[in-house]
Design goal:
Layout: H1 10-19, E1 24-26, E2 29-31, H2 40-54, H3 58-67, E3 70-71, H4 73-79, E4 83-84, E5 96-99, E6 106-108, E7 119-123
Antiparallel strand pairs: 1-2, 3-4, 5-6, 5-7
């Protein structure tokens, strides 16, 4: 006997996940109208949409807001850590002065005032925001 590659119980769940972004799954099947507030099917659809789009449950969003850390149940299941600190901001880019040359522009960290070099571009250092 040949076993199917995908268990048959997974097919309805996958169909519900795929269709939940287009319509609500209600008591009577797929509903194109918005469900009533407080309806369990509405909450289930919102939970599925939240996990699919942000990899966080609605409870994770509340926990993130309260703790100030990045909380995710999906990450907890994969890595074993529920809340982690937010990644540090990237270092600001350095000042760059670019001058015309024979082949392509030459760029330096400080102004280069030798002869008749022509400045063709300047990227100032970023101002830190507090």
């Amino acid at each position: 006997m040949i076993r199917p590659a995908v268990p048959l119980a997974v097919i309805p769940l996958a169909a519900a996940l795929l269709l939940s972004s287009c319509a609500f799954i209600g008591r009577d099947g797929i509903e194109t109208e918005a469900a009533r507030v407080g309806d369990f099917n509405l909450l289930a659809n919102l939970e599925i949409l939240s996990v699919v789009n942000t990899r966080k449950t609605m409870g994770d969003h509340v926990a993130t807001w309260i703790t100030g850390k990045d909380c995710s149940t999906v990450r907890a299941q994969r890595e074993g850590v529920w809340c982690v600190d937010w990644p540090a901001a990237p270092a600001p880019p350095a000042q760059v002065y670019c001058y015309a040359s024979l082949a392509r522009p030459s760029c330096f960290a400080q102004p280069y005032n030798e002869g008749n070099d022509r400045l063709i571009g300047f990227v100032p250092a970023a101002i830190p925001v507090r």
